[in-house]
């Protein structure tokens, strides 16, 4: 887990998995997860997905491992498999993590431009969310706008997310696009540039997972610059 590179992470994981000692299920699953991360960071997405499926068979932290499998499937171009894994994560995860899984499902559907489905998932995430509720509500508003709906409380939604801790990080991506929708292009540019700066400095796995958001943020910034 403390490995500095994807290659060394993979070496240590394989060494642990090849040990002659009997591995308990949790240790086995966590070693497979480290191997998955090594393959994912090395952009070997098909192999990463296969390893995530092996880990899922151990029935340890199944919702977390479904998230892993979803990321690998999505990066490998298999949207439907990714959505199936995310739905499974929402079903199998504890109540405390269910809103996060539903939000991830909604965000994936949003990027796929399946806005009505995205809104349905995000509405459930917002209903059950706690500390991240402003983020889920804002993402829901963005999906509704993309679907052609009118959002009457848009400014209040923007303010609530901007003032919440969850408005940092990924929240900047949502804030940027809500500000753009509200015609506040200067604010949109500031939020989106902050999102891109933070993402570029993130760990490799997160950077890969956010490639769709990065493309959308850059496209929106290009639209702002063109005007």
From TrEMBL:
Gene3D superfamilies documented for this protein: Tetratricopeptide repeat domain
Origin: domain of life: Bacteria
Protein name as catalogued: Tetratricopeptide repeat protein
Annotated source species: Labilithrix luteola
């Amino acid at each position: 887990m403390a490995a500095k590179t994807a290659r060394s992470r993979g070496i240590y994981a394989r060494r642990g998995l090849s040990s002659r000692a009997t591995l308990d299920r949790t240790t086995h699953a966590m070693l497979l997860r480290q191997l998955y991360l090594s393959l994912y960071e090395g952009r070997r997405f098909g192999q990463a997905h296969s390893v995530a499926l092996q880990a899922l068979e151990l029935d340890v932290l199944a919702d977390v491992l479904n998230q892993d499998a979803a990321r690998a499937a999505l990066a490998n171009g298999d949207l439907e498999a990714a959505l199936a894994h995310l739905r499974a994560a929402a079903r199998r995860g504890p109540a405390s993590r269910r809103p996060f899984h539903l939000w991830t499902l909604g965000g994936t559907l949003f990027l796929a431009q399946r806005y009505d489905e995205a809104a349905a998932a995000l509405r459930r995430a917002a209903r059950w969310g706690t500390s991240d509720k402003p983020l889920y509500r804002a993402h829901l508003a963005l999906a509704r706008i993309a679907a052609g709906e009118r959002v009457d409380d848009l400014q209040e939604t923007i303010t609530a997310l901007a003032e919440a801790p969850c408005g940092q990080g990924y929240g900047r991506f949502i804030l940027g696009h809500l500000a753009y929708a509200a015609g506040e292009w200067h604010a949109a540019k500031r939020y989106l540039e902050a999102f891109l700066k933070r993402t570029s400095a993130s760990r490799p796995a997160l950077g890969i997972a956010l490639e769709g958001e990065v493309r959308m943020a850059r496209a929106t910034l290009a639209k702002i610059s063109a005007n």
